[in-house]
Structure formats: structure tokens, C-alpha cells
Specification:
By secondary structure, the chain is mainly β. The protein is built from three helices and 38 strands. Helices cover 6% and strands 53% of the residues.
Length: 597
């Protein structure tokens, strides 16, 4: 049964209130029960109306357009909305006009990242979403990013980054960042200031290195990549004398996706070194090479180095050589299969491309004439590289000509001059270079490297192959007899390298240890790329004064110690009573100050 109740003030009889009778019990509900249900309904309505206040305003949205540096919209680009901890919340694709949209986004702060084929990912930080938020992103290629690399150190009062690795511009703002367990991303859509010319002057002292002992000055001028070109020049000399000058000039032209062309000219003049033609050894080299990319799959490198060396200013003892090299690589995903051929014996250095000796092959003496250390190296390798780690496995075959064996001369070192002993002698350091027999070898090398937390890096290597050994003798012998006992033997090599930067102090350090059998006097796998020096080595660079204004000025203290524990020495007593200490690498200590302005 229904009863119609007229509301006071109602406009007509079309509005009414219905009261339902309880048919099951055949009686009306009590007024108390009805009031309880009415209060419940009002409470639910109150909660529903108050929910926007409790949980915030209505959901927002994020939309925008993704373009390349030329302003062309990019289709099919992946756009992600990230939490502040870089967790992915939403992932969408851009349409034919480069547009994307992410509806129903709760208000808050986010990051937006765009990723497209052949582009570096672009990241926009601290995006505040309220209602309708527009975020337009620009994708850059690696070639374009190379136009605005940083040219000055960070100021000491710059806030510390909470990222694993950051690349900064000349204006000291972030350009590239390496996400923790993530990709390299561009964090700026603008090109920024152009790089400036940078000059660097180093005053160092060195003990125990062939041809580089005593006080030295190195002046370096570097034009960091700008408009796809790079210029690098340096001169190294001994102040107050005419001895020991080295210089180099390098130039590179980036061709974008097509590749790059590079040329380096290096000159070494050492009038103090005594050779078969009398006093003085001069060497000059011009190296040119080109890198070509054939799509995303193939990379080809081809080049050659022309070398001329002379012993003695008026001596006809001159040697000329052309040393070709090249490689072909096939990339698939994170892996690359590569074939490499070279006739250049790489110099052991700390990786400083401004050092002229890095670009010059070693010299030796054979049959009374100057000779260049060279060989034929062929390898087939597989390598895999990700943002956090990398591994390499290589099998190789070598044929080495005129290998250099270095020794420290003790008493009577003057007897080893060019008078028929067949060595190059540096009377300042007391070191000499002798020549071992030509030999061939084959072997393998495996390398594993890993990026560690805090910006540190570890690398482990193993190799086996041929090396020259010097059996010990129990009696005095002539230098010719000692060198006549040198022979090749299969040996193994283990190496460990650690590097990083100390938080707070900015100290950059690198420590490495390379072990081989004690009787080996040349290295296993001498053509390996980026191999470390034998035994325990330590390299430190400590900023002691950073420029706080505009420009790249600063002062650094340098320390470079090689074969710190003096391991691997092979002593031999000669007939004249002098002592020679042969080793893969002699212990040397260098240090000084570097001024950048």
C-alpha cells in the first residue's frame, strides 16, 4: 500500500515522497528505523561530496609533442611518465604528428622521458601535474650532443648530483646523465653556450722513464668538440736545455652518422739518447684514419701511420715505415663481432692523448742499425656492452719484429753507448733499449668490466700467448751473450684495474695490477687495446684550486707511479762488472702541477 505525502512548498503534485509498506511482515516500518536509514544515506552522500577535498582535485593529464632538433615531429616515440624514483607509471606512443596524451594522472611531481630510434633519450625533470599539463620534448642525436660538451670543471660550491654520472656544459648545467641501472639521457633541450678554447700547462718531475727524466713542462691547447671539429696540440720539453722535446698536433672531423676522420702528427727529438749513429734520436709520425658507419649494423675503421726515424744528426741511419691498420665490426643489439688487423705496436701510457709518445712506435737497434718495433696482429673478437657492464673475448695471432727489451744500467753504463753494443742508451736516466729476437704467438684474451656504485669502475682481464723470457745465468757474460739467451715462451697474464672519484675531495684515482711470470721481459698480448702497465701502478689527480667564476681555470696536483713495488726485475752481471736489470717496465715516479686556464 502506498501513501502520498505532499511536501510543504512543493510546486505541484508531480513531486512526492513514497513510503513503502513492509509486505513481508504486513506492517509499517517504525519511525526510528526510517530515521536511522536516512542518517546513513546522508552520511554516504556527505563522504562522496567531500572525497575530492580529501584526495585532491580532479585527475589531471599530461600531453605534448615530441620533435627532433630541427623541429620535425617524431612518430612512434615511446613517452613515459616516471615517479621521482624513476619508476615507470604510464607508457604511450606518439601519433603521426608527434603528439602524445596521458589522461587520468593524479596531481603531483613527475619526470617525463621520450625514447626514439637513433636518438638519445630525453628527460624533463620536476614536471608538476595539476589539471592539463603540456610537456614538449626534443630528441637529440649523440652527434648533436657532442656540440656542447663541457669545457670547464665544476665549481667547488656546486650542489652534489644525486645521479650516478653527470656531464655538464660550459655554463655548468647538466646535459647528460647516466641513470642508475638505466640509459644515458639528455636533460636539456637547449644547445647552451659554445665550448671555449682551453689551455693547460703542466710542470712535472719524473724519475726512471726512458727519455723523459728530470724536470719537464707540457703546454697543451685543446679545442673541445664544436661544430663537429676538435683540435688538440701539445709540446713537452725540458726547460733550460735543448734536450728531450716532444710535440703533437691532432685534428678530428665528426661526420655524424657517417663516421669521422682524424689525423695526428707527432714529433720526438731526443739529442741526449745515444744510438748507432752517434748522439741523438729523432722520430716523426703522421697517423690518419677514418671511421665509417654503414647503417646501424656495420662499423669500418681504416688508416695508416707513416713513420720516419733517424739516429745521429749527420748519420745516414734513417728508417722509414708505413704501418696500416683497420677493423670491421658487426653490431647486433648490445653485442659486436669484430675483426681487427694492425701493424702498430701500441705504447703503454695512462691514456692521455696529448702525450706525443702515445702516437709514436718504439725504437730499437738491430745489427747496428736503427729499427722500428712493428708486427702483424690479427684478431677476431666478440664484445657486449651495456650501461652497467661490458665483456670482451678475443682470439689473436701475432708476428712481432724488433721487440724492445728495457733495462736499467748500473755501474759502467757508459760502456753501452753506440760502440757496437746494439742498444739505445739514455745516460740521464741510466735506461737502455735492447732488441730481442723476432717471434710469433697466438692466444686469447678475455676482459670483464663493471660500473660500481659511487662512480667507480672495475676491470678484470686474462690473457695467454707468447712473450720473451730471459733465463737466469750463474756467471758473468757479455751483453751479446745475455741477449742471445732471450727466447719466446707461452705465458699467462692477469690484470685488475680500479678507478673512480672520491666524494667531497674530487680526487680522481686509478690503481691497477698486472701479473706475468717473473722471467718474462715483454708483455703477453702486446697489441691489446687499453691494456694496463705491468705490476702495481697508481695514478692520482687532486684538484687543489678550482676557478669559481666564468671559465675553466683550475689547478691540479698529479702523481703517477709505475711498477711501485719494483717487481719483475731480471738481474745480469756483465764481464766488465756492471749490472743490468731487465724488466717489462721499470719503476718510475712522476708528479707535478697542472694549470688549466
Amino acid at each position: 500500500m502506498f501513501r502520498t505525502v505532499r511536501r510543504p512548498g512543493a510546486r505541484s503534485g508531480s513531486q512526492c515522497e513514497l513510503e513503502l509498506q513492509d509486505r513481508c511482515q504486513g506492517r509499517r516500518r517504525s519511525p526510528t528505523r526510517m530515521m536511522r536509514r536516512l542518517h546513513l544515506a546522508l552520511f554516504i552522500a556527505l563522504i562522496a561530496s567531500a572525497s575530492p577535498v580529501v584526495y585532491g582535485i580532479a585527475p589531471g593529464s599530461v600531453s605534448g609533442v615530441v620533435r627532433d632538433s630541427a623541429g620535425v615531429p617524431q612518430i612512434g616515440v615511446v613517452v613515459q611518465l616516471l615517479n621521482p624514483d624513476l619508476g615507470v607509471l604510464v607508457s604511450v606512443y606518439t601519433d603521426a604528428k608527434g603528439r602524445f596524451s596521458m589522461p587520468f594522472i593524479a596531481p603531483g611531481r613527475y619526470a617525463v622521458k621520450a625514447m626514439g630510434t637513433s636518438f638519445l633519450p630525453s628527460l624533463r625533470e620536476n614536471v608538476r601535474v595539476r589539471t592539463s599539463t603540456v610537456v614538449n620534448l626534443t630528441l637529440n642525436t649523440l652527434y648533436e650532443v657532442m656540440q656542447w660538451l663541457p669545457t670547464q670543471p665544476r665549481a667547488a660550491n656546486t650542489p652534489k648530483d644525486d645521479w650516478t654520472w653527470t656531464l655538464r656544459s660550459a655554463a655548468n648545467r647538466p646535459l647528460l646523465r647516466w641513470l642508475e641501472d638505466g640509459p644515458l639521457v639528455v636533460v636539456s633541450d637547449r644547445s647552451g653556450a659554445r665550448p671555449k678554447l682551453k689551455a693547460r700547462l703542466m710542470a712535472t718531475g719524473r724519475e726512471g722513464t726512458f727519455g723523459e727524466s728530470g724536470e719537464r713542462l707540457t703546454a697543451t691547447v685543446q679545442n673541445t668538440p664544436s661544430n663537429s671539429r676538435a683540435l688538440l696540440a701539445s709540446v713537452d720539453f725540458d726547460p733550460g736545455s735543448d734536450a728531450g722535446m716532444e710535440s703533437m698536433l691532432g685534428f678530428s672531423q665528426d661526420l655524424g652518422f657517417a663516421g669521422a676522420v682524424q689525423s695526428v702528427a707527432a714529433v720526438s727529438i731526443h739529442p741526449e739518447i745515444e744510438g748507432p749513429g752517434g748522439g741523438g734520436v729523432d722520430e716523426a709520425a703522421i697517423r690518419s684514419w677514418e671511421t665509417m658507419n654503414l647503417g646501424d649494423e656495420f662499423e669500418i675503421e681504416a688508416g695508416s701511420e707513416q713513420v720516419v726515424a733517424r739516429s745521429g744528426q749527420d748519420s745516414p741511419n734513417t728508417v722509414v715505415a708505413a704501418l696500416p691498420f683497420g677493423s670491421v665490426g658487426w653490431r647486433y643489439g648490445d653485442s659486436t663481432v669484430r675483426y681487427r688487423m694492425t701493424t702498430l705496436m701500441p705504447a703503454l701510457s695512462d691514456g692521455d692523448d696529448t702525450d706525443a709518445s702515445t702516437w709514436l712506435p718504439a725504437l730499437a737497434v738491430r745489427d747496428g742499425e736503427l729499427a722500428i718495433t712493428r708486427g702483424l696482429h690479427q684478431e677476431i673478437g666478440w664484445e657486449r656492452s651495456t650501461d652497467a657492464s661490458g665483456m670482451t673475448f678475443v682470439v689473436y695471432e701475432d708476428r712481432i719484429e724488433n721487440p724492445v727489451i728495457e733495462a736499467a744500467a748500473g755501474t759502467g753504463s757508459g760502456n753501452f753507448a753506440s760502440g757496437g753494443n746494439g742498444v739505445l742508451l739514455d745516460p740521464v736516466s741510466g735506461l737502455l733499449h735492447a732488441t730481442g729476437p723476432n717471434f710469433s704467438s697466438a692466444g686469447m684474451m678475455a676482459t670483464l668490466d663493471r660500473r660500481l656504485p659511487g662512480g667507480n669502475h672495475v676491470r678484470v682481464s686474462y690473457a695467454n700467448g707468447g712473450a720473451l723470457v730471459m733465463p737466469a745465468t750463474s756467471h758473468a757474460a757479455s751483453l751479446a751473450q745475455v741477449l742471445g739467451g732471450v727466447r719466446s715462451r707461452r705465458a699467462q697474464m692477469y690484470s685488475l684495474s680500479l678507478s673512480g672519484t672520491l666524494d667531497g675531495t674530487g680526487t680522481r684515482w686509478r690503481a691497477s695490477y698486472r701479473w706475468q711470470p717473473a722471467d718474462t721481459v715483454t708483455q703477453v698480448a702486446p697489441f691489446a687495446v687499453d691494456s694496463v702497465e705491468p705490476y702495481f701502478n697508481l695514478h692520482l689527480r687532486q684538484p687543489i684550486l678550482l676557478h669559481r667564476g666564468e671559465g675553466p681555470g683550475g689547478i691540479e696536483a698529479l702523481l703517477d707511479v709505475r711498477n711501485l713495488l719494483a717487481e719483475g726485475y731480471r738481474p745480469f752481471l756483465l764481464n766488465d762488472g756492471s749490472l743490468l736489470l731487465f724488466a717489462q717496465d721499470q719503476r718510475s715516479i712522476g708528479g707535478g702541477l697542472a694549470f688549466t686556464f
